[in-house]
Amino acid sequence: MPAAPAPVQRAVVGPGAVAAVPAEAEAICGIPASELDTLLVVGPGFDTRPWAERLVAALRPLPIRRYVQPGPATPAGVLRLARLLRDDRPGIVLAVGGGTVLDTVKAAVALQPYPDLDERDVARGCDDPEPRRRWRTGVCTRPAVVAVPSTPGTGAEATPFATLWDTAGGRKLSLTGPELLPGAVILDPDLLVGLDRTVLVGAVLDTICQGAEAAWSIRSTPASTAFGLTALGTAAGVLDRLVAGRLDDAGRLALLLAGHHSGRAIAAAPTSSCHAISYPLTLWLGLAHGHACGVSLPRLLRHNADVTTADCADPRGVRHVRAVVDRIAVALAADAVPGTGGTVAARAGTVAARAGAAAARVERLLAGAGLAPLDELPVDAHDLAVEALNYPRCHDNPRRLDVPVLRRLLGTPLGLEESCS
User: Fold this and answer.
1) In this structure, are residues 59 and 90 in contact, taking their beta carbons and an 8 Å threshold?
2) 217 within domain boundaries
3) 341: left (phi over 0), alpha (psi -120 to 50) or beta
4) Helix%, strand%, coil% for the chain, nearest 5
5) Is residue 372 part of a domain?
6) Range with lowest mean pLDDT among 48-57, 168-177, 285-294
7) Which string of b and e fits 115-143 if b means at least 16 CB within 10 Å?
8) What is the CATH number of the domain that holds 160?
9) Percent of the chain scored above 70 by pLDDT?
10) pTM for this prediction
């Protein structure tokens, strides 16, 4: 069944939006900012960001302590922060950073009331919600969370779940529940200043994959499709400026909004095949998340556009799948041709041709940022297919995938996937 719609969040959007954090904290907690004990959680590079001093100054009415999240969001790291929250009991937590920081805070706040957990408990609670019903609850009130993304793309500020990495077990985990949704989100494009092109391209690849997968998934809903297509169209309008290194304030805001909409999309329907393929690539090769997602998107776009009655996995049928893939392709091709807005080029030819044009644009994005394509990664296609299919969401792809099909798809040079079906 599709996930329930996420509750409505408070949101402040635009340049300088971080100045609204104290007022938002007061509104959420009903306590004057000067009396609101606040924990600021940041990543290890926070002090090097060009806006860090300005952000700290904007928060000054709040009595702030700082906590640095040192690495990936792991069960151990989440439990460490949860213990701190239980001991110090802040009224509000400000999560300022990328998806790692936001997911760590969301998970730690969700787990704060449970004093007896170890890493295995957390892993089991991610795999199956049933064990969570038996966790002993302590006397503890969760703090409110304000999410302030300083990278675009993940949409973590808009989702009721957190991605955790079980590095010892070699698995990606997801902790899910309404208590993981932040109470407020601040989208300030000034916080993207200073990010290099490779980081921004990786972020937009995550956005694009989330938007596409939430639209084409067999679990898609009208909401996930609408948010996904909005994310794709908003991101597509910025791609050429991003690759050329001409990103301005409006472009940075577009990237933040696209990422936020992609988060809203996957809150309504989870990601599917590109993300399932990305997890082993990140665990095995250390690939950044957006890069790991984006390398398979061109192949899956072409593959899904050629869906047939014999291999359609979506109960809504071939016509539905092709129509959605077509809408994804048209959205991705928007603004690709200077002077036309991409409209004529995007709508010419067949669904497969439009999907091929959109796939080629993603390939150019990877190349323009110097990110290795799939066929240059040192990974065995069979092993990658087997591991990806171990994640249930891989089977949410609208065209049926099994080990032989996915192995051929991942091992075939781009542009030749149609011979694999």
Assistant:
1) no
2) yes
3) left
4) 55, 10, 35
5) yes
6) 168-177
7) eebebebbbebbeeeeebeebeeeeeeeb
8) 3.40.50.1970
9) 90
10) 0.90
